[in-house]
Amino acid sequence: MRSGSRMGDAMWGLAGILIVLAAWELATRLGAIDPTIFPGPIAAIRSAAQRLPASVFLDNMAWSLFRVVGGFILGAVAGTVIGFAAGWYRGFGYFARPLIELLRPIPPLAWIPLAIIWFGLGEPSKFFIVFLGAFFPIVTSAYHGITHVDPSLIRASRSFGLKGLGMLFHVGIPASAPDLATGLRIGWGLSFGVLVAAELIAANRGLGFMIMNERTSGGSVSVIIVGILLIGLLNLVTDAALAAFIRRWIGRWHGG
Amino acid sequence: MSRTGPERASSAAGAAPMIDIRHVRKQFDVRGGGEALVLDDINLSIAANQFLSIVGRSGCGKTTLLNIIAGLDAASGGEVLIAGRRVVGPGQGQGMVFQQHALFPWLTALENVVFGARSLPLAKAEKIDRARELLQLVGLEASAGKYPREMSGGMQQRIAIARALALDPDILLMDEPFGALDELTRIEMQQELLRIWEARRKTVVFITHSIGEALTLSDRVILLAPHPGRVARDIAIDLPRPRSRTDRRFNEFYEQIWSGLSS
Where are the domains of chain A? Predict the structure, then answer.
């Protein structure tokens, strides 16, 4: 799936975004959509800026980012350790895998009532929900990676006298890095999604709270639209940063 | 200690073999009950510095035998001695080269070779020096910083040889190392291996499907017959090197091995 340079691909992507934005703006100006419930992008940004100072937007973004990073790190660490352990140690795998499979299909949002009861309305309940969003894709990918290490690499490392933990750290884990990296990216996207949903329901700051609060307090639809765009933008930028980190980490030897 | 000086090898009566395979038998449990006999009473004495090839059809147990010598697989009966010591696992002086180069893709060429020396009691800097020397030996010192995916099949296999040599093993066990290479690269690699073997003098056990390859390289060719795997012929190849495939005696040996394989 290679088409031209990375720069050229980016130009096409940017063109697509600009075209949609322009069509949206044009549609409101021509009266095709009602600007009181769906203002155009320029009007939305202008009136959102009039209604709330930039610091409010930045503050809510910072809170959302803080929660998603915190919960994601917890989920990534737990998912990586448990996934590797379940794949490497057969006995632990027998024990842990059914438990993971049992809990995995439960949507993280279904835990919100329990999270509130257990952890209250403060930050720990958000971390918990984000943790769940990150944990399952990461634990699954770590497990898949470590159970699919090329057997010839295992044999080769045995011929150099590696075994046990040495083999886990020098062969099992590095060989699983590409699978783990995929899980990390999926987990990051999911973490973001469940956080915003959790903030819609139970929070008093953050981007999810901000847009829901505008709706319930009879505020501005423009703020809601700008809030949604910020959610998308924040996710896009952070995912690109994660992708760049992964490229630096394994890109040269793994490709892509 | 896996290192054995020549004084020890020669202290026994006559020339003690580097590798002594005694009554080695291997059977696998078959799914659904029963056992399959893969190797039956293999006996081979391989002298130090000998280049020995094992030729046979798929399923004759060549790779299993090599894995037993390597200590990666346990025999069901009998034993293998390396320089007089019974093999109980890897790291007793066996260096291995696999069919799929089996380089670690996340390590550079140099790092892969350094990895080969990991169990040696050397400082990191010494291991790196040794690895650079070996890269030079296989003609790839300029590619030290490349990752396996950035190298051709022939280069990858050279690195794999350098990695196996990093342990300074007494013996080099090679499991169809050039089987996946194209014909031209394969011939180059055979010449390369002979050059390395002359430079570093190892006992080599080389597994191949190719009669021509075995004849080009070896002092001795073992024909393994299948079901169960057993030594069918043991042929000394007393041709001078470099060998020519059009040489009359080369072709006589070829016929001899071919008739052994097809009988």
Answer: 1-33, 36-254
CA B200 to chain centre: 14
CA distances B200 to B101, B134, B196, Å, are: 20, 10, 6
What average pLDDT score do residues A7-28 get? 92
In whole angstroms, give the CA distance from residue A15 to residue B231: 71
Contact check, Cβ <8 Å, A156/B102: yes
Question: Are the C-beta atoms of residues B78 and B125 closer than 8 Å to each other?
Answer: no
- Bridge partners, residue A188, by sequence: none
Note which residues in 134-153 of chain A have CB less than 8 A from chain B. Answer: 150, 152-153
Contact B101, B26 (CB under 8 A): no
Length of chain A: 256
Identity of the residue in A152, A250, A252 whose CB atom sits nearest the CB atom of B100: A152
Half-sphere exposure of A40 (CA within 13 A, CB side): 16
Do B147 and A252 make contact, defined as CB atoms within 8 angstroms?
Answer: yes
Interior/surface letters A149-186, b for 16+ CB within 10 angstroms, e for the rest: beeebbbbbbbbbbeeeebbebbbbbbbbbbbbbbbbb
- The interface predicted TM-score (ipTM) is 0.87
- Beta carbons of A160 and B118 less than 8 Å apart: yes
CA distance A250 to chain B (A): 7
A154 in contact with B, Cβ within 8 Å: no
The model's pLDDT over A41-81, given as tens digits with 9 standing for 90+, comes to 999 999 999 999 999 999 999 999 999 999 999 999 999 99
Distance from CA of A114 to the nearest CA of B (A): 43
Residue B107: its chain A contacts at CB < 8 A? 253
Mean pLDDT along residues A179-192: 96
**Could you tell me which CATH number the domain at A36-254 has?**
1.10.3720.10
pLDDT in tens, A113-127: 999 999 988 899 999
Residue B114's closest chain A neighbor by CA?
A160
Nearest to A61 by CA among A186, A190, A185, A205: A205
Longest alpha-carbon distance in chain A: 74
8 Å CB contact between B175 and B99: yes
| Cis amide leading into B228 (omega within 30) | yes
- Measured at the CA of A8, the angle between CA A6 and CA A14, to 5 degrees, comes to 105
Max mean pLDDT range (A183-187, A217-221, B167-171): A183-187
Determine the residue of chain B that is closest to A154 in CA distance: B102
Beta strands at B171-175 and B203-208: parallel, antiparallel or unpaired? parallel
Q: Which residue of B has its CA nearest to A156?
A: B102
